[in-house]
Design brief:
Blueprint (H helix, E strand, L loop, with lengths): L2 H13 L1 H16 L9 H6 L14 H12 L21 H13 L10 H17 L7 E5 L2 H19 L4 H4 L8 E5 L4 H9 L8 E3 L19 E6 L11 H11 L2 E5 L24 E5 L11 E5 L2 H8 L27 H36 L3 E2 L7 E5 L3 H14 L5 E5 L2 E7 L7 H20 L2
Parallel strand pairs: 2-3, 2-4, 4-5, 5-6
Antiparallel strand pairs: 1-7, 6-7, 8-9, 9-11, 10-11
Helix pairs in contact: 2-4, 5-12, 6-12, 7-9, 7-11, 12-14, 13-14
The chain binds pyridoxal-5'-phosphate.
Length: about 475
C-alpha cells in the first residue's frame, strides 16, 4: 500500500467529513420519504446511467463518492421507510435497530467466534433466550443468526437431514447421499419457493417430495398428509406468502411427534403472530416442531440481512453446520459459527436485540397487531369500492381482484406507475390477483386510505384504457 493511500484513509477516518455527509444525506432522505414516489420516477431511473463509469485507475475522493451515491442513488431507491410499500413482505426499519447498526458498522466486528467478538457472542446468547421465551419454544432450543429465511430454512432442513440419517446409522457428512437410506420429505404444494430451493440444495430432489394439497386458504390439508414415520421431514408454514394462512401445527405436530418425524416450520414473517396477544392462536402448536425459521427483516422491521434458525436439538444443528480448522479456536462461551453455515458474519444479531429491547412485549404486540388491523382496513375499504377480496385476512396479507384478470393486471401496472404505493401481482387459484403485504410499522390508517384511493383511481384509468 502506498504511503499516499494510507495517509488518505487516515485522513478520511479522522476528519469524518465523508461520514458527516453520509449522515446528512440519510436525514435528508428520511425527511423526503413521506412525500416521494414509492417507486423511482423514470428520470431517477435514467440518471442511474451516471454510474456507468470505467473502473477508476487512481484513488477517489470519499466525499465525492458519498455525494454521488446520495445524488444518483437515493432517488433510485424503492421507498421502504414511508409505509406505502406493500410488495414482497418487506418491513420498515425500527429506529433503535438502525441506530445500533450505525454504531456496529464502526465496530466492524466479525462474529464467528467468541474470541473474534465477545459482545456479539453475548448478544447472540441473550437474544436466543429472548426468542425462545417469546415464541415459547422448548428450553433446549438454540438459535443461529443468518442472512434471512432462505438460509435459515436451509439450516433447519440440514439439521433434520443430519438427525434423521443419524438415526438410520448413516453419517451424511462423511458418506453423503450416494447409497444413503431413503428419507421422506413431506411438504405442502403451497410451500415457499425458498423451501423448494433448500430441498434441491440439500440433494433430496424435488421429484422425491411427497407434495400435499392445500385448502382454499393455502393451508396444508392435514387429512391429506400421508402416514408419517421416523424417516420423515414434514415442512409446515406459519404465514402463507399469498394469503397469510397458518397450517395446523397442533394436529400435525402431534402426529409427527408420535411417529418420530422431524417438523420444520417456515415462519419467515408469520411466526411473529405469536407476539401479538390476539393473533397468538394462529401459531398454536408450534412448540411441537423441531426447527423454526423466521426473519427479523420482515415483520419485526430490523434492517435487512437478518434471519434466524432455531432448533430444538442443538447437536443436530451443530453437527450439520460446524466447521473445523487448525486456526479456529472454539471457547467455552457461545461461538456463533457453530450454528450457521457462514464463518465470517457481521454482528447482525445486534439489530435484532435492539428491536426486541426497544419494542418490548407490549410494543411488539401493538406493532404486529397494528399490521393486522391495517390489512383488515385494506380489505374492508377495497371491498366497499367493489374490489373482490379472495382470502380470509387472518394476518397481514390481502389478495385483491378486479372483475377480470386483464383489468387486475392493468390496475396493478397503474398503481405501480402512480408512485402513491407499490403492490405486486401474483396468481391465486388460477386468477391474477393483487397482493398486499402490510409489514411496516410506519403504515398508518391514513396511508391505507390514501392507497385505497390510488387503487380506485388506477382501476378507473385501466377501465378507460388510459
Ligand atoms: C420471505 C419468505 C421466505 C424467504 O425469506 P428471505 O428472508 O427473503 O430469504 C421464506 N418463506 C416465506 C414464507 C417468506 O415469506
Amino acid at each position: 500500500m502506498s504511503e499516499d493511500i494510507h495517509q488518505r484513509m487516515r485522513q478520511d477516518m479522522s476528519s469524518r467529513v465523508a461520514f458527516d455527509d453520509a449522515r446528512d444525506a440519510a436525514y435528508a432522505y428520511a425527511d423526503a420519504a413521506p412525500e416521494r414516489n414509492v417507486f423511482p420516477t423514470p428520470e431517477a431511473l435514467a440518471a442511474l446511467a451516471g454510474f456507468d463509469e470505467s473502473l477508476p485507475a487512481r484513488p477517489g475522493d470519499a466525499i465525492q463518492i458519498v455525494r454521488q451515491l446520495a445524488e444518483l442513488g437515493s432517488p433510485a431507491t424503492v421507498s421502504q421507510i414511508a409505509g406505502r410499500y406493500f410488495g414482497l413482505v418487506n418491513g420498515g426499519v425500527i429506529p433503535a435497530s438502525l441506530a445500533v447498526r450505525w454504531l456496529t458498522d464502526f465496530w466492524d466486528q466479525n462474529t464467528p467466534l467468541y474470541l473474534s467478538s465477545p459482545v456479539a457472542s453475548k448478544l447472540e446468547e441473550v437474544t436466543e433466550g429472548w426468542l425462545r421465551q417469546l415464541f415459547e419454544l422448548p428450553e433446549s432450543s438454540v438459535a443461529g443468526f443468518v442472512s434471512g429465511s432462505s438460509l435459515s430454512i436451509f439450516c433447519g432442513l440440514a439439521a433434520a437431514r443430519q438427525r434423521n440419517f443419524a438415526r438410520l446409522g448413516w453419517d451424511v457428512n462423511r458418506r453423503g447421499l450416494i447409497d444413503a437410506p431413503r428419507l421422506r420429505i413431506v411438504a405442502s404444494r403451497q410451500a415457499h419457493g425458498t423451501v423448494s430451493k433448500a430441498i434441491a440444495l440439500l440433494g433430496f430432489g424435488l421429484d422425491n417430495v411427497e407434495w400435499v394439497e392445500a385448502d382454499q386458504q393455502g393451508r396444508i390439508d392435514s387429512d391429506a398428509v400421508p402416514e408419517l414415520d421416523a424417516s420423515c421431514i414434514l415442512l409446515l408454514q406459519a404465514g402463507n406468502v399469498n394469503t397469510g394462512a397458518f397450517d395446523d401445527f397442533e394436529a400435525l405436530g402431534r402426529r409427527a411427534n408420535a411417529a418420530g418425524a422431524w417438523v420444520h416450520v417456515d415462519g419467515a414473517f408469520g411466526l411473529w403472530a405469536a407476539a401479538a396477544r390476539d393473533l397468538k392462536h394462529l401459531t398454536r402448536g408450534i412448540e411441537l416442531a423441531d426447527s423454526w425459521s423466521f426473519d427479523g427483516h420482515k415483520t419485526l422491521n430490523t434492517p435487512y440481512d437478518c434471519g434466524v434458525i432455531m432448533c430444538r436439538d442443538r447437536d443436530a444443528l451443530v453437527n450439520a453446520l460446524h466447521a473445523a480448522g487448525a486456526y479456529i479456536t472454539y471457547s467455552d462461551k457461545r461461538d456463533g459459527m457453530l450454528y450457521t453455515p457462514e464463518m465470517s458474519r457481521r454482528a447482525r444479531v445486534i439489530e435484532l436485540w435492539a428491536a426486541l429491547k426497544y419494542l418490548g412485549r407490549s410494543g411488539l404486540d401493538e406493532m404486529v397487531y397494528g399490521m393486522h388491523l391495517r390489512a383488515r382496513q385494506f380489505a374492508r375499504e377495497l371491498e366497499q369500492q367493489g374490489f373482490e377480496i379472495l382470502n380470509d385476512v387472518v394476518f397481514n396479507q390481502v389478495l385483491v381482484a378486479c372483475d377480470n384478470d386483464k383489468l387486475t393486471v392493468n390496475t396493478i401496472e397503474r398503481i405501480q406507475q402512480s408512485g402513491e404505493c407499490w403492490v405486486g401481482g401474483t396468481t391465486w387459484q388460477g386468477r391474477h390477483v393483487i397482493r398486499i403485504s402490510v409489514c411496516s410499522w410506519a403504515t398508518t390508517e391514513a396511508d391505507v386510505g390514501r392507497c385505497v384511493e390510488a387503487f380506485v383511481d388506477a382501476r378507473k384509468k385501466a377501465t378507460e384504457g388510459a
